[in-house]
Model the fold of this input.
Amino acid sequence: MRPMLGEVISRPHIPGWPCISSLRRCKNGFLLLILCSSVLVFSIGINLPFGSWRRISMEPVISPAGNTWESAGTFNPAVIVRSGKFAMLYRAQNKSGTSRLGFAESTDGIHFTRRPEPVLSPEADYEKDGGVEDPRLVKFGDIYYLTYTGYNKKDAQLCLATSKDLIHWQRKGVILPAYKGNWNVGWTKSGAIVPEKINSKYWMYFLGTSTDKTDQTGLVYSIDLTHWTEATREPVLAKRPGKFDSRVVEPGPPPIITNDGIVLIYNGADDKLVYRTGIAVFDRHEPAKLISRSEEPVFFPEMDWEKNGQVPNVVFVEGIAEEGDRFLLYYGGADKYVGVAEAKLR
Done:
C-alpha cells in the first residue's frame, strides 16, 4: 500500500544512500529524506515502480570459465523472460580481450545454465578483433531486438541484430556511426530502446561523447527500428560536476514505462571512474523532457568482486526482468562478473 501524504516511511538503509532515519511524503508529492546528519530532498516527485535495491546473491551468478572465449570476464548482461524462464545474453571476454555474447537460462533468476558456445561472435569488419559487447534486449511482436557495441580495436559503434529464438542472430549493421551526430564527437554505445511506441515512433537512449570528452546520454527515434534520427541537439541526460555522474552518464537496461513517465536506470561514473547506479524519469509523452533525477546513487560497489576485477569499482546495470512482486536487476561487477539485485514492486 502506498503511503499517505505526510506519512513517515521507515527506511533504515537504502544501498548507495547516506544513513537514513526516515522518509516523509510531503504534500507537494516529494519525498523528504531525514538523514542522520542532514536533510536532503530526493528529486523524484513521482511514484517509481520499485522500492529500494538489495542484492539477492552475495556471489556472482555468472563467472569466467575455461581457457577460451569466456576465460577473462563474463559481465554486462541483458535479461528477458521467455516461456517462464530468465534468458540472459552476457558479454564474455577471452584473455586477448575479444568479446562474444554467451547465452544462459534460469528458472529462478539466480542459478543459470550456460550454453557451451557463444551465440554471437565477431564477424563483421566493425567487430573485428575487439568483438561484440554490452547487449540490451527488447521484444516487439515475435522478434527480439539486440543492441550491442561493435568494436574493432579502433572504433566502438552502436549496432543492431534481430532473432526469433535468442540463439540465431541476423545483423542489421551499425545504427549510430561513431564521430557523427548533433553533439557526439566520439564513439556510440549503450542503446536502451523504449519498449513501446510513443507518438507513433520508436525511441532509444544512447551513449555519445561530447566535445569535452565526457560521455553523456542522447536520444534518437525511428519508424522501423533500423534507421535512427537524433531527436535533440544536445544530451538529454547530461553529466553533473561534483556528483556521482560527473564523467559518464550511460543508459542501463530498456526503460520502464509507467503512467508517471519513462523510468531510465542509468550508470554514472565520477571523475575517478567509480561506477554507480542512478535513476532518471522522462515525460511519458515527450521522451526528451527530463522530469526528475536521483541526487544520489541507488546502488554502488560494495562486494569485493565489484571492487576488484578487470576494471575496479564498477557496478553496471544492463538487464531487468519483472517477476511476481519484484524486479530483478542484473549487472556487471568490475568488468568480470554478473550479479543480481532485486527491487520490490510498488
User: Anything to note?
Assistant: The first strand starts at residue 8 and ends at 9. The chain has two domains: 8-42, 50-345. The two ends are 8 Å apart (CA to CA).
